[in-house]
Amino acid sequence: MSHTKYIGFVLRWLQSLVATFECLGDGRVPSSRNLEAASILDPCTVSMVAMSHLIGGNCGHPGVSEPIVRYGKLLALAPEFGWTRAYRHLYPLQNSALREGKPVGVERQS
């Protein structure tokens, strides 16, 4: 990847991340277009492996065929609004226990 393409990728990623934190800070939900385009996590939980990661049922991830997957590093978790943000992607949350603020099976690993 050329330096120009890499800088463009990082810039788009940072803009997307800033938009996610602005939504969280303002108490807004991401747009329905963004949520509809995202892979669904159902069910899901949070894993603590040096940094929080999303672990969830694979419902439509384009590059993964396993039924349960560990997604990227968890950057924002807003279960009360029904969404979460991992390192690269935004995900709508379908797990009602997590949405109610009662994570199921939260694990801590050293």
Could you explain the architecture of this structure?
By secondary structure, the protein is of the alpha+beta class. It has one domain (3-109). The chain is 31% helix and 36% strand. It contains three helices and six strands. A six-stranded mixed beta sheet has the order 5-4-3-2-1-6. The longest helix is centred in the N-terminal third of the chain and has 24 residues, at 3-26. The N and C termini lie far apart (34 Å). The model is unreliable at 105-110 (pLDDT under 50).
SSE diagram, text form:
Elements: H1 3-26, H2 32-37, E1 40-49, E2 51-59, E3 68-78, E4 83-86, E5 90-92, H3 96-99, E6 107-109
Parallel strand pairs: 1-6
Antiparallel strand pairs: 1-2, 2-3, 3-4, 4-5
In short:
The chain is an alpha+beta fold. The chain has one domain (3-109). It has helices at residues 3-26, 32-37, 96-99; strands spanning 40-49, 51-59, 68-78, 83-86, 90-92, 107-109.
Question: Notable features of this structure?
Answer:
110 residues; alpha+beta; 6-stranded mixed sheet
